[in-house]
Amino acid sequence: MTEKKETVPPEYDVNAKWDACLDLTVRRFVYSSLGGAFAGLLLFRSPVTRWSSIALGAGIGIGSAYTDCSRSFDAPSSPSANLAAPKSTTTETS
């Protein structure tokens, strides 16, 4: 009894899109928060304004990730949607 596995084209693989979107969102959130923290340390003396710059950076990161992810889900066959899941490559040695 052999099972026939169905392969899903990459543009319709929703699980891969969710993985890529989650990865992109976390990376942009962290990097933009760190950028906001660095800018807050350089520009502001008050702790409130420093935290505000961190929050602004985090919001910008989440917003840009949301924009890219929504493009990825809305237009599956679009060549401009360059959001893709990381692929593992294995090489066979003989």
From TrEMBL:
Residue ranges with Low complexity bias: 75-88
Membrane topology summary: Single-pass membrane protein
Top-rank lineage group of the source organism: Eukaryota
Pfam family, one: DUF543
Keywords carried by this UniProt record: Membrane, Mitochondrion, Mitochondrion inner membrane, Transmembrane, Transmembrane helix
InterPro entries named in the record: Mic10
Renumbered residue ranges of the record's region Disordered: 73-94
Major location (coarse): mitochondrion
Compartment list: Mitochondrion inner membrane
Annotated family: Belongs to the MICOS complex subunit Mic10 family.
Functional note: Component of the MICOS complex, a large protein complex of the mitochondrial inner membrane that plays crucial roles in the maintenance of crista junctions, inner membrane architecture, and formation of contact sites to the outer membrane.
Protein name (record): MICOS complex subunit Mic10
Native organism: Camelina sativa (False flax)
